[in-house]
From TrEMBL:
It catalyses: a 3'-end 3'-phospho-ribonucleotide-RNA + a 5'-end dephospho-ribonucleoside-RNA + GTP = a ribonucleotidyl-ribonucleotide-RNA + GMP + diphosphate. Its EC number is 6.5.1.8. SUPFAM superfamilies: Hypothetical protein PH1602 (SSF103365). Its cofactor is Mn(2+). This is 3'-phosphate/5'-hydroxy nucleic acid ligase. It holds the Pfam family RtcB. It comes from the Bacteria. Keywords: GTP-binding, Ligase, Manganese, Metal-binding, Nucleotide-binding, RNA repair. Gene3D superfamilies: tRNA-splicing ligase RtcB (3.90.1860.10). It comes from Actinomadura sediminis. InterPro entries: RtcB, RtcB-like_sf.
């Protein structure tokens, strides 16, 4: 998914993601002082949306296509633990 499309994604998905995972940024989006600045919170919300799991293509079909084309062979399945941006 292009980053612009991911950034315009649904707020409900982002809210569910934020409840489940700890997102560390300079701005504490739960701070009541931040809530008084909707412009700042809106700008902050764009970054996690761009890096959220739903913004990425499922790797299964990609690996299958590479294996089927004789380009690569799968050797392990990995699961991400964290995303670092910056």
């Amino acid at each position: 998914m292009p980053r612009g499309a991911a950034a315009r994604g649904g707020d409900a998905e982002l809210d569910a993601f934020l409840r489940e995972f700890r997102v560390v940024t300079p701005l504490d989006h739960r701070d009541p002082r931040a809530a008084r600045r909707p412009d700042v919170v809106a700008a902050w919300r764009r970054d996690p949306k761009q890096e959220a799991p739903w913004a990425y293509k499922d790797i299964g079909p990609v690996v299958s296509a590479l294996h089927g084309g004789g380009v690569a062979s799968p050797v392990a399945e990995l699961r991400p633990l964290l995303t670092v941006k910056g």
